[in-house]
Design brief:
single chain, alpha/beta, 4-stranded mixed β-sheet, 3-stranded antiparallel β-sheet, 18% helix
Amino acid sequence: QMNWLKGVLDESQAANAPILVFNHHPIFLVRDRDYREVAWLLQKYDNLVYFHGHYHNELVADSFYEWHGVDCINVPRATENSSYAPGSGLVVEVYENEIVVRSRDFIKNEWMDFRYTY
Protein backbone atom coordinates (compact mmCIF):
# COMPACT_ATOMS: atom_id res chain seq x y z
CA GLN A 1 0.00 0.00 0.00
CA MET A 2 2.77 2.43 0.83
CA ASN A 3 4.52 1.77 -2.50
CA TRP A 4 1.23 2.25 -4.34
CA LEU A 5 0.52 5.48 -2.45
CA LYS A 6 4.00 6.84 -3.14
CA GLY A 7 3.56 6.07 -6.84
CA VAL A 8 0.23 7.90 -7.01
CA LEU A 9 1.61 10.86 -5.06
CA ASP A 10 4.69 11.04 -7.30
CA GLU A 11 2.48 11.07 -10.41
CA SER A 12 0.45 13.96 -9.05
CA GLN A 13 3.58 15.83 -8.01
CA ALA A 14 5.06 15.38 -11.51
CA ALA A 15 1.84 16.75 -13.03
CA ASN A 16 2.12 19.79 -10.73
CA ALA A 17 -1.39 19.02 -9.53
CA PRO A 18 -2.85 19.42 -6.04
CA ILE A 19 -2.92 16.18 -4.10
CA LEU A 20 -6.05 15.52 -2.04
CA VAL A 21 -5.84 12.49 0.25
CA PHE A 22 -8.99 11.25 2.01
CA ASN A 23 -9.01 8.85 4.96
CA HIS A 24 -11.37 8.17 7.83
CA HIS A 25 -8.62 8.51 10.46
CA PRO A 26 -6.23 11.38 11.14
CA ILE A 27 -2.65 10.49 10.27
CA PHE A 28 -1.69 9.82 13.89
CA LEU A 29 -4.43 7.18 14.17
CA VAL A 30 -3.66 5.31 10.93
CA ARG A 31 -4.09 1.62 11.67
CA ASP A 32 -1.97 -1.35 10.60
CA ARG A 33 0.99 0.92 9.89
CA ASP A 34 3.35 3.08 11.88
CA TYR A 35 1.75 6.52 11.52
CA ARG A 36 5.20 8.12 11.41
CA GLU A 37 5.90 6.27 8.16
CA VAL A 38 2.70 7.65 6.67
CA ALA A 39 3.44 11.18 7.90
CA TRP A 40 7.02 10.98 6.61
CA LEU A 41 5.71 10.11 3.14
CA LEU A 42 2.93 12.71 3.03
CA GLN A 43 5.08 15.59 4.27
CA LYS A 44 7.30 15.27 1.18
CA TYR A 45 4.57 16.80 -0.99
CA ASP A 46 4.06 20.56 -0.70
CA ASN A 47 0.80 20.53 -2.63
CA LEU A 48 -0.95 17.90 -0.49
CA VAL A 49 -4.02 18.29 1.73
CA TYR A 50 -5.11 15.38 3.95
CA PHE A 51 -8.85 15.15 4.73
CA HIS A 52 -10.07 13.01 7.62
CA GLY A 53 -13.05 12.53 9.87
CA HIS A 54 -13.34 10.18 12.84
CA TYR A 55 -13.88 12.78 15.58
CA HIS A 56 -17.35 14.05 14.58
CA ASN A 57 -16.33 17.61 15.46
CA GLU A 58 -17.96 20.84 14.36
CA LEU A 59 -16.46 22.87 11.50
CA VAL A 60 -14.32 25.54 13.14
CA ALA A 61 -11.06 27.30 12.35
CA ASP A 62 -9.17 24.57 14.23
CA SER A 63 -10.53 22.01 11.75
CA PHE A 64 -7.74 23.22 9.45
CA TYR A 65 -4.34 22.46 10.91
CA GLU A 66 -0.81 21.31 10.14
CA TRP A 67 0.50 18.07 11.61
CA HIS A 68 4.20 17.27 11.15
CA GLY A 69 4.36 19.27 7.93
CA VAL A 70 1.09 17.96 6.47
CA ASP A 71 -1.89 20.27 5.88
CA CYS A 72 -4.95 18.53 7.36
CA ILE A 73 -8.68 19.11 7.42
CA ASN A 74 -10.84 17.50 10.09
CA VAL A 75 -14.09 17.10 8.14
CA PRO A 76 -17.11 17.92 10.34
CA ARG A 77 -20.03 15.75 11.23
CA ALA A 78 -23.49 16.49 9.91
CA THR A 79 -26.20 15.35 12.30
CA GLU A 80 -29.47 16.61 13.73
CA ASN A 81 -27.69 17.55 16.98
CA SER A 82 -24.99 19.58 15.30
CA SER A 83 -24.71 23.18 14.15
CA TYR A 84 -23.47 21.60 10.92
CA ALA A 85 -26.83 20.31 9.68
CA PRO A 86 -27.62 17.19 7.64
CA GLY A 87 -27.33 17.95 3.95
CA SER A 88 -24.33 20.18 4.46
CA GLY A 89 -20.80 19.49 3.38
CA LEU A 90 -17.56 20.87 2.07
CA VAL A 91 -16.83 21.98 -1.48
CA VAL A 92 -13.19 21.85 -2.57
CA GLU A 93 -12.37 24.26 -5.39
CA VAL A 94 -9.00 23.78 -7.09
CA TYR A 95 -7.53 26.75 -8.94
CA GLU A 96 -4.14 27.30 -10.53
CA ASN A 97 -2.61 28.97 -7.46
CA GLU A 98 -4.87 28.00 -4.58
CA ILE A 99 -7.28 25.50 -3.09
CA VAL A 100 -10.45 26.92 -1.54
CA VAL A 101 -12.57 24.88 0.87
CA ARG A 102 -16.09 26.21 1.49
CA SER A 103 -19.09 24.90 3.40
CA ARG A 104 -22.43 24.48 1.68
CA ASP A 105 -25.95 23.53 2.69
CA PHE A 106 -26.96 21.34 -0.23
CA ILE A 107 -30.59 21.00 0.90
CA LYS A 108 -31.15 24.77 1.03
CA ASN A 109 -28.78 25.29 -1.92
CA GLU A 110 -26.91 27.99 0.03
CA TRP A 111 -23.30 28.72 0.88
CA MET A 112 -22.60 28.62 4.59
CA ASP A 113 -20.39 31.06 6.44
CA PHE A 114 -17.06 29.25 6.27
CA ARG A 115 -14.17 29.45 3.82
CA TYR A 116 -10.53 28.40 4.04
CA THR A 117 -7.83 29.00 1.41
CA TYR A 118 -4.52 27.17 0.86
